[in-house]
Amino acid sequence: MSLDRSSNPEAPSDDRAARIRELCRYCDVEERLPLVPPSAKVRGLYFGGIDRTLAKAGCHEGFAALFPQRPAAVLWHPAADFLVRLAVGGALLAGPERVHEGMSEIGRGNAVTFAESLVGRALIRLLDRDPRRLLKQGIAGRRQGFSYGRWELEFPTEREAVVTMSEEYAYIESYFLGAARGTFHAVNVPVRAEAVLVDRFNGKHVLRW
Length: 209
Known about the structure:
Strand content: 15-25%
């Protein structure tokens, strides 16, 4: 898998491939793609989160020109395709040089959008806005949307959580860190969130509130 082979069924043009490469030049997505196994899948719901964040920011037109097809929300799609869209979306949102900030905002937007949905509002009421229970539910929910990797949750203290991630091909230090911040923002709980990487696919979040 390379940036020349994305999720569109049409063969990519040279101009399109060059545009994707230009946008992704400040992140390692091209190096990641050959390391992502074909069995790794992501539900289309998360692809849609990229579109929603870009649309809200008024910069979706350029993204849609590169990725005109919208994956079905409930179906599984290649994780490598998700990574390319995520990196391009982050670059369009914040600029290529700040692509990780853009990916973080996409992650945060996904969490907030879920919390504002009917299901999310019902869940938050059910969990009484308790960050510990919300994190447990979030990790359980991730297993429904990503076919790969392993996340483990522990609570070293009453107001601290550590989420350890193994074989996580999306960006632990930006996309998923933004999602963690968005989860706490959704329940109006201030959080200090830090990503600690072992390597690009293994690491942890340390969350204190």
